[in-house]
Amino acid sequence: MRRAEIEDKGSMQNRIYFLKIRCRLFWQNQRDIFLRMVAHRSALLGGIIVSLFILLAFMAPWIVPHNPFEGDLFKRLVPPFWMPGSTNYLLGGDELGRDIFSRIIAGAKISIWIGFLSVGISILVGTILGAFSGFYRGLFDELISRFAEILLAFPFLIFAIGVMAMLGPGFWNLIFALTFKGWVEFFRLIRGEVMSEATKEYVEAAKAVGQKNWLIMMREILPNVIHSLIVLGTLRMGYMIIMEASLSFLGLGIQPPMPAWGSMVNSGRPYMLNAWWISTFPGLAILILVLSINLLGEGLRDILDPRLRID
Questions:
Q1: What is the Cα–Cα distance from 130 to 228, expressed in whole angstroms?
Q2: What pLDDT band is residue 1 in, cutting at 50, 70 and 90?
Q3: pLDDT in the model for residue 15
Q4: CA neighbours within 13 Å on the CB side: how many for 125?
Q5: Which of 302, 292, 304 has its CA nearest to residue 45?
Q6: Which burial class, exposed, middle or buried, applies to 243 when counting CB atoms under 10 A from its CB (0-12, 13-18, 19+)?
Q7: Using the 8-state DSSP alphabet, how is residue 257 labeled?
Q8: If we measure between CA atoms, which residue out of 28, 3, 49 comes closest to residue 238?
């Protein structure tokens, strides 16, 4: 066997060996995070409730007791099951005789999808721009940073209302309105983290051995800042769900007959004195889901941030 073949074989064995070590360390790290999660009561409670909402949302077509789009005028404004005059509607009926409980479950899928998509796109855009700005600096950093500062000058809800007024209601228009400004928070986080990490010794060592800049960002820097990104993304998801509900409440988000929680709250405003359940139960769904997401995000911050970790 030639010497070159022996060296190639040895190099391949070393790569496989280090890959096995990385996989072992990765799964050990995930197990430690899971055990800390179980020990953190508020994070565990938030995670269970959020998981329950996700499960209900994606199983909605099979578990809703009634069609959320079809109404029965004979059951118009019927009260919840514990009140006199109730029917087989668990949480009562709305102004068109539709089952509120079924509409809440169906609306959960819309809110969760909008939260995931808007935060996911914001993370992708903010991470790419923030990594390049923090690593390379220069004119590109100046332009993107000034544009981000201009967007920060506008209150989020007013900015989203303006975008939706120009584009019109719709699912993807709503996603665009939320992500057009939503990426700024992630851009600022990643830019600051990359600027801090780029001055450290392990980055200098990677540059010294001739590693390419994009590989340094992907393999060396981003894995060290991903935990901060996860925490911020979790917290911002609750905020995006509130923004979607606010825009739907104003008539600029998801349009009827789609069962969006914000529009359900709005539709019950004229009946607050004699049919309070139309607005109350969708509002409670928003409250519980967003509170659970915030509990999960705060718990992940305590678990993943080494400066806050108490062993």
A1: 13
A2: very low
A3: 60
A4: 17
A5: 292
A6: buried
A7: T
A8: 49
